[in-house]
Amino acid sequence: MSKVDQGGVSVRELGHFINGQHATGLSGRFEDVFDPASGQVTAQVPMGDAADVAAAVAAASAAFPAWSASSPLQRARLMFKFKALLDSHIDELAELVTRDHGKLLSDAKGEVMRGIEVVEFACGIPNLLKSEYSDQVAGDVDNWNLRQPLGVVVGVSPFNFPMMVPCWMFSLAVACGNTIVLKPSERTPQASMRVAELFIEAGFPKGVFNIVHGGGATVDALIAHPDVVAITSVTSTPVAEHIYRSGTHLGKRVQALGGAKNHLVVLPDANMNQAIEALINSSYGSAGERCMATSVVVAVGTIADELVKRLAERVRTLRIGGGMEPDLDMGPLVNAAHRSKVAGYVDAGVAAGAKLVVDGRDHKVPGHEQGFFLGGTLFDDVKPGMSIYSDEIFGPVLSVVRVPDLASAIALINAHELANCVTLFTGSGAAARTFSRQIQVGMVGINIPSPVPSAWHSFGGWKRSLFGDHHQYGQESVRFYTRYKSIMQRWPEETL
């Protein structure tokens, strides 16, 4: 990675990572990577074209025969070495995440550790790939099954978790015997590049894990490549649908996670203090740039007025600053364009008639005047027809919707086209059981905000929050990254 001077400021010029080494982009086109806290350009990332894609896929294809023939135990031992390297580089990786994305360093460390958890799960691949065997299913006939790798897999990861989500993808893909080409977000590319270096340092063969940077055209080129057999992605819903339709049209296996509009329901019997803190952390942590962030609080019955009052008090006192600074609640948004988009949703909410209780559009952070900051924002009296209710805003904007009872809350949530995660705060076990069974959402929390499943379970939503049949990581990913094969055999009798 060379450095170039741009306007007196030294910035890194990134390359792709192909066949175990950094590779210069063939297109000659670059995009800027920003430090969201300062607004300054810190790196330039190449925008891959068809030639870059072809080189990466060729490396992955060449590595596949030997890698797929290696034993699961060999793969696991390399994965253990890789995990140890990740453990020893947590601080470095977290800082790269914060520098690119803007989230607080404490949030970034949490992200890195959640990524490592999935790598740790992948270390158990010999057990995860065990098959079933049936003796004597017919006269001298035995029947068993195998799970075999697919081939070259493509991973398309989002800007908001540049370390964790790639770990979901490549760790299990390669543990199952596949090779992979990762297309990380061009907004936050640096953590994945460092991870790729550590991957080689752990001893993995060259070509097993490759990276090509770029935008939508790069993704389309990867999908269209005839040697790519499967695509896994985490993106917005429109992009996820495009990837799913494009990939399945070409006969490829696709797992495409989309957007979210996550509700948190507060019943009158809930512990109010716990609910308030959960809402603040879930809605405004990482500036709301999480697919598990709460963006709608559903206030049930008489609790609404007190809930809004106390939320407003907390939102007004959020500590906002640069991600590398200590003792803060929230950092900046990822770039200027996204900040403008989020502010535009606030404008639309006001125009639609929602009550703007706390307005963060003019928030300034001393010493970071050029940063991409937007203060915590809170709306009340939001209605389902408003864009701030229907759309994934992906920013520090929380909407309060008032309903009379639990049944109305369930009906409201089930009517939304996005169904990633949902939470209920209550003191009633009966209400929790009813809610858990009736709600049509992929991940459910009871008195737990942002209910991200453990690494040995699986992550994913329902409806237009997921296109495809498999959720991410856990046993679901083992199924996605392998083909099931049934084998029956009979041996003719011999004279012994």
Would you write up a description of this structure?
The protein is α/β, with parallel strands linked by helices and 496 residues long. The chain folds into 2 domains: 2-258 and 465-485, Aldehyde Dehydrogenase, Chain A, domain 1; 262-446, Aldehyde Dehydrogenase, Chain A, domain 2, CATH 3.40.309. The chain has 16 helices and 24 strands. It has helices spanning 50-69, 72-88, 90-101, 105-122, 125-128, 164-175, 190-201, 216-224, 237-249, 272-284, 304-316, 336-352, 387-390, 406-414, 429-438, 474-480, and strands spanning 2-6, 9-13, 16-18, 21-23, 30-34, 41-46, 133-138, 141-149, 152-156, 179-183, 209-211, 228-234, 253-257, 262-266, 294-300, 355-358, 377-380, 397-403, 418-419, 421-425, 443-446, 462-463, 466-467, 482-490. Helix 3 runs antiparallel to helix 7 (190-201). The longest helix is centred in the first third of the chain and has 20 residues, at 50-69. The protein is globular and about 85 Å long.
